[in-house]
Design a protein that fits this description.
By secondary structure, the protein is α+β, with helices and mostly antiparallel strands. It has two domains: 61 residues, GTP Cyclohydrolase I, Chain A, domain 1 (Orthogonal Bundle); 135 residues, GTP cyclohydrolase I, C-terminal domain/NADPH-dependent 7-cyano-7-deazaguanine reductase, N-terminal domain (GTP Cyclohydrolase I, domain 2, 2-Layer Sandwich), CATH 3.30.1130. Helix content is 38%, strand content 24%. The protein has nine helices and seven strands; from the N terminus they run H-H-H-H-E-E-E-E-H-E-H-E-H-E-H-H. The strands form two sheets. A five-stranded mixed β-sheet has the order 5-2-3-6-7, with helices on both faces. Strands 1-4 form a two-stranded antiparallel ribbon. Helix 2 packs across helix 3 and helix 5 packs across helix 6. The longest helix is centred in the C-terminal third of the chain and has 16 residues. The chain is elongated, with a radius of gyration of 23 Å. The chain binds zinc ion. The site of zinc ion has 6 residues, from loops. Zinc ion binds next to loops.
Length: 215
């Protein structure tokens, strides 16, 4: 998102007897999302900070860009990232993609939670490019989330696009809202799982998957 039609340049004014730092506007002509940047500036003031001091002057801009990226999943669809990378395949053996790194924001505190996703499925005529599995994880991770919903959304998306015999998703994550505040359990790991189709119905399929994750 780029909202600047006319970049504001105060370089001339700054040489005109003013220090740029005295002015109420940024010298840098870059404007990304003025409304969001204004809100972040207000947060800084409310926290007792001076948004005009050197280290913070571009912070609203940076935070706006970072938040935009970290929530880009709202404007990305699974169909876009999969981009037809689904192939016909007659094998019906279990496919597992382990240790997919993900980073998300908890919707309760807007603090990061991050970890690894492990995904398995039993195809029924269709397989997906392995890198696309990670892209699908990102579509849902880059939103305000709770880990349980993230897990379910990944599983449901895979069911929808692959129509497989089954899908299994396991997420292991550390939550900054637990590590930095509150209970301060630095080493606790939250594990969630979503089982669909055969992985839900058939205990042997499920334990085969879980066994393969341990290797
Ligand atoms: Zn939280």
């Amino acid at each position: 998102m780029k909202l600047a039609d006319e970049p504001i340049s105060l370089v001339e004014t700054a040489f005109n007897g003013h220090y740029a730092g005295d002015l109420d506007v940024r010298v840098a002509d870059e404007v990304y999302d003025p409304y969001l940047e204004g809100l972040i500036e207000q947060i800084l003031v409310r926290l007792g900070e001076d948004p005009q001091r050197e280290g913070l002057r571009r912070t609203p801009l940076r935070v706006a860009k970072a938040l935009d990226f970290l929530t880009s999943g709202y404007t990305t669809s699974v169909a876009d990232v999969v981009n037809n990378a689904i192939f016909a395949e007659s094998s019906e053996e279990m496919i597992i993609v382990k240790d997919i790194e993900f980073y998300s924001l908890c919707e309760h505190h807007m603090l990061p939670f991050f970890g690894k996703a492990h995904i398995g499925y039993l195809p029924k005529g269709k397989v997906i490019g392995l890198s696309k599995v990670a892209r699908i994880v990102d579509v849902f991770a880059r939103r305000l989330q709770v880990q349980e919903r993230l897990t379910n959304q990944i599983a449901d998306a895979l069911v929808e696009i692959l129509e497989p015999q089954g899908v299994a998703v396991v997420l292991e994550a550390s939550h900054f809202c637990m590590m930095m505040r509150g209970v301060q359990k630095q080493n606790s790991m939250t594990v969630t799982s979503a089982m669909r189709g055969l992985f839900r119905r058939d205990a042997r399929t499920r334990s085969e998957f879980l066994e393969l994750l341990r290797r």
